[in-house]
Amino acid sequence: MVLQKLSQLSLKLAFFGLVFLFLGMMKWERLLAKGRFGDSPLKINTNAGRSEFEIDYDRIIFSAPFRNLQDKTQVFPLPDQAFVHTRLTHSLEVSSVGRSLGKGAGEILINKFPNLQSLGIDSSDIGAIVAAAALTHDIGNPPFGHAGEEAISDFFRLHPDGKCWERHVRIDQWADLINFEGNAQGFRMLVSKESGLKLTYATLAAFTKYPRPSLITQRDIARKSQKKYGFFINQLVDFEQMTDVLGIEKLSSDSWVRHPLAFLVEAADDICYSIIDLEDGCTMGLVDFEETVDLLKPILGDLFDPEKLKDRSINQNLGALRALAIGKLIQETVEVFAQYEENMRKGTFDKALTDMIPSAKALGEISRVSIQKIYRSKVVLEKEAAGFQVLEGLLTVFSRALYHHFYQPEAFSGQDKSILRLLPEDFPMKGWGAEVNPYPLLRALVDFVAGMTDKYALNLYRRVNGISIPGF
Prior knowledge:
Layout: H1 2-22, H2 28-31, H3 52-61, H4 64-67, H5 87-112, H6 115-118, H7 123-135, H8 145-158, H9 160-163, H10 171-178, H11 182-191, H12 201-207, H13 236-246, H14 260-283, H15 289-300, H16 314-346, H17 360-375, H18 378-406, H19 414-420, H20 439-450, H21 454-464
Keywords: Hydrolase, Membrane, Transmembrane, Transmembrane helix
InterPro entries: dGTP_triP_hydro_central_sf (IPR023293), dGTP_triphosphohydrolase_C (IPR027432), dGTPase (IPR006261), dGTPase-like (IPR050135), HD/PDEase_dom (IPR003607), HD_domain (IPR006674), PHydrolase_assoc_dom (IPR026875)
Protein name: Deoxyguanosinetriphosphate triphosphohydrolase
């Protein structure tokens, strides 16, 4: 048995060795291409004073999906007194850290590859790509955060009004529905013709941390980029268009190598939620200030000066410690990026950068305490429990009405008719029937629910269930 397992392991290692042998090394000249969806890759920027990647940032800032993040919680429900982060403030902070990471990495790349300057690329461009991609990293998150993702998945996987659709769609489409993924929803939103964003291929690739669909032949658990998936199956053509333009290599028949800048976007998020969720936990009284300081000390090292904490408020001290810690983590991450940059382009490096930095152990301890005292706190668990109820309730009434309308007309009721009138005006209500695959219809339903803010989802849930009635 042992020999058999060793033989299987050897074959697997040999297979991946062959994969990497035939992988070409990706080139920065293509990885930083300025083309965008909807335009020719060679189209020249006519917007004086702004690079293509700065235009990406501006388009995202002014988009409706980004504005909606202001009413989506990061970890805590929004309290009346203490300030805690929303998805919007979190995204802005991740983008700020991402810009610093990108510019730092960009300076290294420009020095290493001087020909990039002849193509009109400088370190600020690379900072702008990472900043724009980081700005969108949570744009596909449904109401109530990760609990919302699980609620949507559980509805199709377990609820009778969700499971009834399984026999009408393909197996790869069903895999999308029973494993809802905010990253894939984000990619869908960013390439959607309705959104009109038309971002550059480089920004989209930096956004895509998980360059694979939901259903693949074999997942390599050692590769961080295969932990989740990054696009729904009906966005495969869009994804392949992006990888073709940028020269992103395939890892297997159904998976790709990460764009190197995606590692920086991931690191920006890791840095922010580690440090800032801890800050929020301290602000909410879930973690003692003294314990918070002890958790940050190993990161700060010689930068920590207890004398500077005297005669200032806790919030002032938290702000100062947070700034110092993030600055140190940015420096360490850029250094590790420089160390592994070539391996990223070869496809042989696939780990989180923050797992490789000197402060990795300290971040791991912060994560342990955060799970215990913050993410599993009563106030967070109550929010998650409410999210499950709200999203399941909304999906139930809309899914049932749609199923009755198209597949069981004899069961279509007056209540169903009223429910369907609550769908958006542009909801695709024509062309469906017993012989038509309803996957695009279900994607549109998930788009509708996932795009809601927490408050809108809660209010609509109350109305459709008769808990509250307008005018009463």
